Amino acid sequence: MTESVHAHNVLNMLLEDGADFTLASLRQAVVTQFGDDVRFYTCSQQGLTFDALLAFLLDRRKVIQDGDKITANRDRMCSH
């Protein structure tokens, strides 16, 4: 059975002290923590792959990509 994980779990990974992720290292951290077949959900969407989740978060500016570096945008994160 595929695990369903809230997107906040990925955002929280980006906010951890000392977090320094590239796209590749974030993808690997997600696979390590949640497995290869994990799916994500948000308040408005469900069944998202990692790539679809990342596109969703980038589109809503909840994460920022600068080259290959990925960071969370605290100003755009909801607090629930």
Task: Report on the architecture of this protein.
- The structure is a single chain.
- With 80 residues, this protein is an alpha+beta fold.
- It has a single domain (4-73), classed as Arc Repressor Mutant, subunit A (Orthogonal Bundle), CATH 1.10.10.
- The protein has helices at residues 8-15, 23-34, 50-59; strands spanning 4-6, 21-22, 39-41, 63-66, 69-72.
- The strands form 2 sheets. It has a 3-stranded antiparallel beta sheet with strand order 2-5-4. It has a two-stranded parallel ribbon with strand order 1-3.
- It is globular, with a radius of gyration of 12 Å.
- 18% of the residues are buried.
Compose a concise summary of this entry.
InterPro entries: Metal-bd_prot_put (IPR019620). With 80 residues, this protein is an alpha+beta fold.
Instruction: Please indicate the count of domains.
Output: 1
CATH C-level label: Mainly Alpha
Bin the strand percentage.
Answer: 15-25%
Main beta sheet: strand number and arrangement? 3 strands, antiparallel
Give Rg in angstroms. Answer: 12 Å
Helices, strands, pairings?
Elements: E1 4-6, H1 8-15, E2 21-22, H2 23-34, E3 39-41, H3 50-59, E4 63-66, E5 69-72
